[in-house]
Amino acid sequence: MCQMELNKSSEEMSSSSQVHHNNNHDDKKIKKNKRFMGSKIGCFGITRRRDDYGHSTLEQADGDGNLDMESASNFGAGRVSDPTHLVVTVNGIIGSAQNWRYAAKQFLKRYPHDVIVHCSESNYSMLTFDGVDVMGSRLADEVLSVVERHPGLQKISFIGHSLGGLISRYAIAKLYTEERFEETGDPSFKEHEVKGKIAGLEPMNFITSASPHLGCRGHRQIPLFGGILAMEKAAARISWLLGRTGKHLFLTDAYDGKPPLLLQMADDCEDLKFISALRSFKRRVAYANARFDHIVGWSTSSLRHRNELPRHHKFPRNNKYPHVINEETARADNSCKAQPNEYNSDDMEETMIKGLNKVSWERVDVSFKGSRQRLLAHSTIQVKSPFVNSDGADVIQHMLDNFSL
To answer: In this predicted model, what pLDDT tens digit does every residue of 344-372 receive, in sequence order?
Structure first.
């Protein structure tokens, strides 16, 4: 659907908080789909909108389906400075940039002079079947184009929903570079310290929401199958129906002696430093549905063994965030080295857990028990649609309250 982007040069009206859209793609398929979406929008010029909380935005749509959205309060003489923090949101399978629209508005309201929110649109609809590596490369190119247009940026964060978390993990490896500090007067740096950058910016928050970090192969990683082994095996055999993405998710893409892609992404490779890129972020956060998510299981989205999952009856009630039932921070475990050469389900899961936990993660467990929207938990945790998934608003608020600016 529509892509939100701040256009700083539009009629010389600069805003300090903005949502970006990148409309430069060489892929003919993308261009064709965007023309089709543009015809469905059927609106041109600038529209002023006010949400249910009284926050006004200015939205501008063009014939290519691009949607620029800015905080109306930022226009005029109140401008302080250009924002320095880029927040990139990434949709899941068969999704679009529109899926993050609610959260983007909350970022605009909370940090009106500090952030630029770019809702990625390079991987949407059927393009999400092209494979994690292809989509990750697209996202990396898209981010570089945004950074190039805004030379004042200094920091970067990623927020990915479902498959978007895996796409983001691949993209940051593509964007990762290292800077070595031989001598410095800054006491925060040690001599010869290596500091990682993402797209030349300081990495701050890497956040995933209901993302299948361990893939979808067996072990009740897809709750819809109810742990029935025959169904899990059948799903793996027909994973090709989801294109290369399906093979990556079900870890059936081992070719020419190379391990499956998700297994490779659990360690640093020669050309792509997947773990070093994750480690470079100040925070890594995994939001996971503890119940009612029929698409992505609690274990795979929280990067835990099943026997490490907290018990439901021990959860205290959180009045501020009623659907956030558990929070914990795990220390990095560097005692075991990932071994991406073992291709049975048990060994692959263990390898990915060990590899991804070489960096510390903040884990936030969510449950929509008692909510009318609980059966839509996979979308509600993101507030994909405020009309259908509004109960996830406290989860987005939790994300904002703990965001490192």
So the answer is: 777 888 999 999 999 999 999 999 999 99
pLDDT in tens, 260-308: 999 999 999 999 999 999 999 999 999 999 999 988 989 999 999 989 9
Q: In terms of Cα–Cα distance, which of 226, 216, 275, 220 is closest to 251?
A: 216
Q: In this predicted model, what pLDDT tens digit does every residue of 108-142 receive, in sequence order?
A: 899 988 999 999 989 999 999 999 999 999 999 99
pTM of the predicted structure, to 2 decimals: 0.81
Residue with tokens 């490192």: 404
What 3 state SS string does the chain have? CCEECCCCCHHHCCCCCEEECCCCCCCHHHHHHHHHHHHHHCCCEEEEEECCCCCEEEEEECCCCEEEEEEHHHCCCCCCCCCCEEEEEECCCCCCHHHHHHHHHHHHHHCCCCEEEEECCCCCHHHHHCCHHHHHHHHHHHHHHHHHHCCCCCEEEEEEECHHHHHHHHHHHHHEEEEEECCCCCCCCCCCEEEEEECCEEEEEEEEECCCCCCCCCCCCCHHHCCCHHHHHHHHHCHHHHHHHHHHHCCCCCCCCCCCHHHHCCCECCCCEHHHHHHCCCEEEEEEECCCCCCCCHHHHHCCCHHHCCCHHHCCCCCCCCCEEEEEEECCCCCCCCCCCCCCHHHHHHHHHHHHCCCCEEEEEECCCCCCCHHHHHHHCCCCCCCCCHHHHHHHHHHHHCCCC
Is the C-alpha dihedral spanning 372, 375, 376, 381 positive or negative? positive
